[in-house]
Amino acid sequence: MTLAAALDRLGRIAGAAPESRALRSAALAELGRVVPFDAAVWPLTDPETSVGVAPLASVPPALMPELPRLIQLKYLTEVNRWTTLTGAARLETPAASLVWRELLHAHGVTDVASVVFRDRYGCWAFLDLWRLGGTFAGFELAFLDELAALLTPELRRCVADCFQAGDPSGTREPGPVMLLLDAGLRVLGQTPRTADYLARLLPDGEGEPVPAAAYNVAAQLVAVENGVDGQPPLARACGLAARESELLRHLSTGADTRTIAARMFLSENTVQDHLKSIFDKTGTRSRRALLSRAAGTS
């Protein structure tokens, strides 16, 4: 099969996929015919923070018990990090990669090809392909770049399709919900309602006590604490504009309208207009309620 034919098939597969997991599973099966690999990790990412969500992975069984450590090391690794990649890349110097040095090489991995699915709207996914024996060639990396350009809009479509109005009868009472992990992503404790909420993050048929998506958030927090990456681990999807987000940050410091206006070089009336827009978008009616929601306490 020619590379052009493979891309055509992948495009048709992606366009027909009803949701992201089906898209990625079908695409991996087709991709393996052009770029052979022995294992793959393909999570979606939050478009604003680039933190992994809804991971899809096919890795050696011996690695499954080490999933939290794999995620932790991936987030602490600066080599070919998806947040900075501008094109598909392989491990030119494997020993420079923390995740390869500390874990992957012990399982026979000799090279990793990485590609990110990003557009002007944000980062939607990244893909790591592992090879056990040999390295990835230049034409294979070039094909992965074409794949990223082809599939990024389809992945974005699948994510957008998730935002459908749900059944209000299935709404659960609010928390408190807390999962406490140490720096090694080992579970230290959790509140009684946590297991129920975490189960909602798991794909059907999977029964892990802590979803990989939760480990990804914790791993990004560890990465921030270690100075590896400055991206925040979480973001709230309220559709705030850049200036509205800036105003909210000033508000969280306790600043009043006059102080915020001076800091943002705006009139006090404009600050109030921005604040009204934020109230509308977040479903709040006061600064106190807004800050409570932003802090996750309401």
User: What is the CATH architecture term of the largest domain?
Assistant: 2-Layer Sandwich
Q: Superfamily at the CATH H level of the largest domain?
A: Transcription factor LuxR-like, autoinducer-binding domain
Q: Which segments are poorly predicted (pLDDT under 50) over 5 or more consecutive residues?
A: none
Compute the number of structural domains. 2
What proportion strand? 5-15%
Order of helices and strands: HHEEEEHHEEHEEHHHHHH
Average pLDDT over all residues: 87
Largest sheet, in brief, is: 4 strands, antiparallel
Strand order of the largest sheet: 4-1-6-5
Cα Rg: 21 Å
CATH class of the largest domain: Alpha Beta
Helix content: 40-55%
So how many helices? Answer: 11
What characteristic shape results from the CA principal axes? globular
CATH topology of the largest domain: Beta-Lactamase
In short:
By secondary structure, the protein is α+β, with helices and mostly antiparallel strands. The chain has helices at 3-16, 20-31, 67-76, 98-102, 138-161, 194-199, 212-225, 242-252, 257-264, 268-282, 287-294; strands spanning 39-41, 44-45, 52-53, 57-58, 111-119, 122-131, 179-181, 187-190. It folds into two domains: 3-159, 2-Layer Sandwich (Beta-Lactamase); 242-294, Arc Repressor Mutant, subunit A, CATH 1.10.10.
